[in-house]
Design a protein that fits this description.
Two copies of one chain form a homodimer. Chain A is an alpha+beta fold. Chain A has five helices and three strands; from the N terminus they run ααβααββα. A three-stranded antiparallel sheet of chain A has the order 1-3-2. Chains A and B meet through helix 1, helix 2 and helix 5 of A and helix 1, helix 2 and helix 5 of B. Chain B binds a DNA duplex through helix 1, helix 3, helix 4 and strand 3.
Chain lengths: 116, 116
DNA sequence: TATTATACATAGATAACCGAGGTATAAGGA
DNA sequence: TCCTTATACCTCGGTTATCTATGTATAATA
């Protein structure tokens, strides 16, 4: 991770939900996807992501299921739930509102205000 | 605080440095200023801000000094140091880069890319 | 053969923020 | 007068998030 631990906080679930909203994915795949989609900015450690996925499953945002891959190896896929979709929308709003507020304080442009 | 603890992480020092770059301020004043500048989004608790100021002083980003107010009460003002100004620039870049990366992952616009 | 990539998982350390509490003064209303 | 609110500083303990390190196992590659 290139950023301080701090900055990540709170945006992790938003990003994972975003990815799972597009298609079902397994843990390792999510890590790679976050890496590439962020322009190599977010290199999540496994020790970070797996506990997050378990937490999200406990919260009923996602549901995990085992599926065999072509190579015969079993992977644990996650799919977003209706609850998770609702949460995704809430987190997206929260993120926009947060980013907008930070920018107001530090004197950046009022990005995000259109969605708040 | 309206946001999850998580989201704040890492942006606190950036925002405080931003305010102190404009003028010297004391703790309580910073809390009020963050509140008003953010459109009442950031209501920092004293239990959050004071330790942050102490940490920043330890890191030599700011320097505290006591000054008497008109009413005779003594306040602890903080002024940003040269080190702090450098840090401010670094944190500003980091924030833009971070916000941009999150938006790329969640499919928002590429805000911040111009400054990265 | 050794290393790297894939793929899952947990335990302990570290750090950040918050809630709650403490101290003290001053102003304003009941 | 008393009580509440605002100002103004501070610390302790709890919760939570992330990282490091470690463990397991297989397959591909050097």
């Amino acid at each position: 991770m290139e950023f301080d631990r701090g900055l990540l906080g709170g945006s992790t679930i938003l990003m994972v939900l975003s990815l799972l909203h597009e298609k079902d994915m397994y843990g390792y795949e999510i890590i790679k996807e976050l890496d590439s989609k962020s322009g190599n900015m977010f290199q999540f450690k496994e020790g970070t992501l797996y506990p997050v996925l378990h937490r999200m499953e406990n919260l009923s945002y996602v549901k995990g299921y085992r599926k065999e891959a072509e190579n015969g190896k079993e992977r644990k896929y996650y799919s977003i739930t209706a609850e998770g979709v609702k949460q995704l929308e809430a987190e997206r709003k929260k993120w926009k509102s947060f980013a907008c507020s930070v920018n107001m304080v530090i004197g950046g442009m009022a990005y995000g205000s259109e969605g708040v």
